[in-house]
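Data deposition worksheet. Section B asks for the primary sequence of the deposited chain exactly as it was used as input, without tags or linkers unless they were present during the calculation. Section C holds the resulting structure in token form. Section D is free text for depositor observations; keep each observation to a single sentence. Incomplete worksheets are returned to the depositor.
Section A, Depositor: J.P.
Section B:
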Amino acid sequence: MISERDSETTFEEDSQPNDEVVPYSDDETEDELDGGQSGDEPGPKQTSRDAEESRDPTKKDCSWQVKANDQRFYDQPGFKRTIFLCFKKSKYSGNAIKTYKYNPITFLPLNLFEQFKRAANFYFLVLLILQSIPQITTLSWYTTLVPLLLVLGITAVKDLVDDIARHRMDNEVNNRTCEVIKDGRFKNTKWKDIKVGDIIRLKKNTFIPADILLLSSSEPNSLCYVETAELDGETNLKFKMALEVTDRYLQEESALADFDGLVECEEPNNRLDKFTGTLSWRNSSYPLDADKILLRGCKIRNTDFCHGMVIFAGADTKIMKNSGKTRFKRTKIDSLMNYMVYTIIVLLILLSAGLAIGHTYWEQQIGNSSWYLYDAQDYSPAYRGFLNFWGYIIVLNTMVPISLYVSVEVIRFGQSYFINWDLQMYYPEKDTPAKARTTTLNEQLGQIQYIFSDKTGTLTQNIMTFKKCCINGQRYGESVQSLCEQVDFSWNMYADGKFLFYDHYLIEQIKSGKEPEIQKFFFLLAICHTVMADTSDGQLNYQAASPDEGALVTAARNFGYVFLSRTQNTITISEMGVKRTYDVLAILDFNSDRKRMSVIVRESSGNIRLYCKGADTVIYERLHPRNLKKEATEEALDLLGVTAIEDKLQDGVPETISRLSKADIKIWVLTGDKKETAENIGFSCELLTEETAICYGEDTSALLQTRLENQRNRAGSSPHSSLRMNEPFFQGSRDRALIITGSWLNEILLEKKKKKKKLKLKFPRTAEEKKKQSEKRRRAEAYKEQQQKNFVDLACECRAVICCRVTPKQKAMVVELVKKYKKAITLAIGDGANDVNMIKTAHIGVGISGQEGMQAVMSSDYSFGQFRYLQRLLLVHGRWSYIRMCKFLRYFFYKNFAFTLVHIWYSFFNGFSAQTAYEDWFITLYNVLYSSLPVLLVGLLDQDVSDKLSLRFPRLYILGQRDLLFNYKKFFLSLLHGAVTSLIIFFIPYGAYLISMGQDGEAPADYQSFAVTAASSLIFVVNFQIGLDTSYWTFVNAFSVFGSIALYFGITFDLHSAGIHVLFPSRFQFTGTAPNALRQPYLWLTMILSIAICLLPIVAQRFLSMTIWPLESDKIQRNRRQYLLEEQQWKRRQSAFRRGVSARRSAYAFSHQRGYADLIASGRSIRKRRAPLDAVLSGTGTGTGTGSGTGSGDTRDTG
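Section C:
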């Protein structure tokens, strides 16, 4: 017996990365990778086991059983699961979906529970409890209760509104109807009442309510066409096909009602493209796969009706299994704000402890010997100090701003609406406004350092257009659009009115019929494809597997070779007005390995021809007479011509990229397209220029290998040393770009998949072997981490990075690496389902409502219709949001410190007895009414420069990237500013009251008058301070500042009136204080002096900084009128795209997925008797993209 220890080898370890190949699928498993190795010869036991598994697929854990038309079947004990103690529930979910969080009974308790999980809310709840203890509190309970209730109430209303929207959405979906068999008849039933095992009927253009097994349809062979845009973002049609036995016997309503088949399949999972199961019916078993399943979220297209059996319902469906929790995203300012709140709490505890110690000392020295201070409590000085510690925690609680979080949410909410309302981000062609899908990330839009963008549909329009062709050496379509008239296709009744072409010579050649190669060329385009045709309202419509294939067939249609229809074994074409039908013998479909597709047809004359089109590189090698690849069906092809298909850039892409680059934002393009296509787009959108030095995968690998060897040499022999080299990879200041493929990315980042050898016997490892294995793994991980870090450092030295041929998983991996090693704020933008992973991984995800469905939009944080709107989102809304939030936070902390620290200075004059310097009601309303509105409006409306100047001067954006406006330095400056203000607010009135005399000869030097004077000074100072901080004045701002001051005096006079004191004598004790104190002129002079000393230094400092050390925004604001005049004359420079390389661009006009050939050329679709493929002697081929080839040959009909 041969035994092997555990060992691992790298998948295709010795192979060189292939730039043309997309790396392994993200969904491949280890077994699938193993099974795909051609080098492994299966032994006899393996072969027999595979054969056995293919005969009985239920061996693969098919524990999910579904019986048709039998609800009692699911009541068996084996289908129950315990949910709590002895309570059991069916393991089969109902079809109703639930995305809401609350119902009328659970809303209040659940919402309060969630809110009190937040540290700030729980902190104030504890304070409220402490305030109910009379021994320690000197502050009334309502001073904390009122702000807390306000915060909880606003948050609860917001949560309630969101949940009501979710309820409405759920009800709209759950109350949709479809036909379900009940009591032997089809009856209209709501989606929420559908159950597993039900037989349902779906009609054209309706959504599929659950994951169902297709039983039959109105189409031949029970085909069913579905659109999966809601599932995977792709708008092209896909087909499903029922089992032959169900197609034959389950067409009538009575037969469907009597159907009693049993399906055994896999448990519910999130694999959209996989399904394994068996249908047992009439003593026979039939294997099931994903092609027999219609998934919830898809839409029935081009099929009048279909019947199906519900397999998975509700939460068990694959779309619901894929809708996992979205990653919770927080802004950088959020994290910083939380740390600052923790800093304030620590500072509060230290201050309270210090003041409590002061009270203990004061009690020992003065309190015990002062008989008039005796309170009938014989507490020791230490115990009194302990009680005062908690008293000061209560008194100084306003240092922790309870209204901070709710104010931030209000500001973000308003900023989100400004984005939604921005008409300059509205895309009228598709009636698509910009949409802020989250309200928590707005200010982070002003701090972006890296943008990761998809290409197709994001930078480009994803609308393919036939532009040029070359047939028999003659080029067509070279005419300049601006100099020539559009070709008139009115002679062709099938012409597509949207198709534009400007070369009249080609039309003349086609009509003359003198060039047979031209006729063959367009005949090939009309017959060699997998497009589906559909006629609606007299219009011929095409459904293609990819936009580029649709463009080729549409071009042939306009030039007189019109694809009309197809069956399983024929295709009908109108050739210059003459309809002909051809027998389709076989279709060799396109895939990413073949890079071509072929079709074999029999003409009416009996001749058999092969027509092929594909990538130029693949077609060329099959034209060579010494071609070593002996493929009987696709060799020795005669070249007919080539095509050029254009996927235009979206409007404004080069300008947008240029502006974002000037804002010091680095742009990386991550795409699944081939290297040449991605490079061409890089030049088109001006990411790359003629002066750019391009570094490819092999160059990158060599540089990283050299760096790693140098690092190992420097680290020495110690395995724990990790020295980082800081010198750059590239010398000089030359503009550089990196272009790397997915295969090279896996090679460089050591992300290639592993395969494990099949082991016959395992021996237990010794402790020494385990230690060696652990050390080996640790070293491998350290090596991998260092290599990835080096790659990120190298890539970030380049001005632009283009990753091509990458999978969705690799896109997300690249974003994660930059986040991990650069600690940079990232944004990902895309339009398709393959971008969802990247969008969710980045700090901010942006979805474009494009040609590939809504999957990216649904997963994004922001969405709009065109890439060019990204510059406005970042440079205008993002920058403004960041500036506003930073200004709001700095001021908010300042006003709270200025307000609260007055209590500390007052403590030195009251024996540290935790007495308050203000009236209780002033403390209650200060943050709620007296100082809240002006700062909220600054957070919502302020702007340092206009939107046009923000776009014209992108360098203004750099402030946010460098965190210059809000950081710990700014926080401590706000603290210092607040402390100085509190000193002035306290000691100037204190000095004035020491030697004062009123007009009536009395000295109003009492505590209550002092409290009113200090409070009034504070209200003036903080409101005028926000006025100084306001850059953009409107009537609303002015009204809020002066209105807040007026509101303070109005409420204060009311609260100090005799009437309210009579009603509530214990709650309102400052009776007559404000009227008496504020009629003394010298008190107003005292307040004016306090305000002047607080604000005049700030005015002087602002003046000097703007004069001597002006910011970029200050300079622009100063010259804004001049810029406004220039703006009216300024025009965008013309894009000069020149590139000194060969005009040949290699690409091919196919999607990276298979087309409809499985349907058209399946065993059930091809005629049983036909000529063998090896009887074909010659054929035709065409390459498309920038190059395509076609050819033709004849052979005898041996069929």
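Section D:
The CA atoms of residues 831 and 848 lie 5 Å apart.
The chain has a mean pLDDT of 80.
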